[in-house]
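Section handout, structural biology tutorial.
Before the tutorial, make sure you can parse a SMILES string by hand: atoms, branches in parentheses, ring closures as digits. In the record below the ligand is zinc ion, and the chain has 370 residues. In the tutorial you will relate the predicted structure tokens back to the input. Do not try to memorize them.
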Amino acid sequence: MPQKPRNADYTKEYNRKSILRILRHNAMSRAELARATGLTRAATSLIVDELLKGGIVTELAPQSVGRGRSATPLTLRSDCYYALAVELSRGGCTVGLCDMAGNLLQCCRLADQDNMVWFIVQELKGMLQTVDREKVLGIGISSPGPLDLIRGVILNPPNFERWHGVEIRRLLSEALDLPAYLEHDVSALALHQLEIGQSKNFMLIYVTNGIGAAIISDGKLLGNSKYFTGELGHTTIRFDGRLCQCGNRGCLEAYASMPALLEGTAFSSWADLVDSVDRNPEAKRLLDQEALYLSAGLINLLNLIPSDTIYLSGDIRYGYELLAQRLQREISAKALDHSRHDIQIHPSSQDPNVGILAAADVVFSKFFTV
Ligand SMILES: [Zn+2]
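Predicted structure of the complex:
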């Protein structure tokens, strides 16, 4: 077949999805959309008219834009597309139904039990009956790693034995006759952060019992395959250091994960430590130590992959300002590119439903990838 029609189709689809992605979070007029996408007014209007006709976008009331002129903002119809979402975590899982505007329409928490897949399928089937099935784009599954993203299989995450070797993507896809997508939980959080934040070049680090990272580069999840695993916790910061659970020595996780940091101290949690900083010199010392260790891992990444923002996620999000100031100082002093002093450090989304919204964004991010 000739190449040309395929290219034209690709361009049309790319432009259509670019407009949808913008309207997902911001209402905009045709003129604003043309400016934001770089498309001509005529091309923008053509796509918008098709989206209006298809019932995917809708017009809001016209607004004055000065000198007697008005513009009609367009917005995504909240019922245009949906995603089912499954957030697997230690101790249970959460399943939900989200719309493309980012609303969580239904949500259910399932305790860890035998036949988990069966219970998940029953809940998802119930949710599916409440919307037009034709508008459901798929099932997003987020899980602790390691995962085989190519085969859609959960490999052997620690303290997650129930799920070891489960072909979760195939099982859910076949049971519901919908496409399913598996993603690392930290990568899913980064995909969600990309949708709700400003930066297109950032790293998200997640510190709890372990340490994970995901990197968004030029608006895309880095190594969204088997080639980047996000195992920041197992990068070496001391080649002859403490033995790590992975079998190597001196891994970042052996120093900066919460159990490693708090072992042998009087603090029961990161929140306990942060709340004690003003009156307890030991808490301050541990906070400085955490920043020192984490910055070592982050500088390794920053020296390889440019980023303008770091999002702190997991336990370290609590009272993040104290850690952020210290990380900023260490990174400014030590990273090779001295413009690092203007790197932004923020907490990741504080929405209590962020995990399930992130699992849904695994589906929407696939949809927007042409
Ligand atoms: Zn390790």
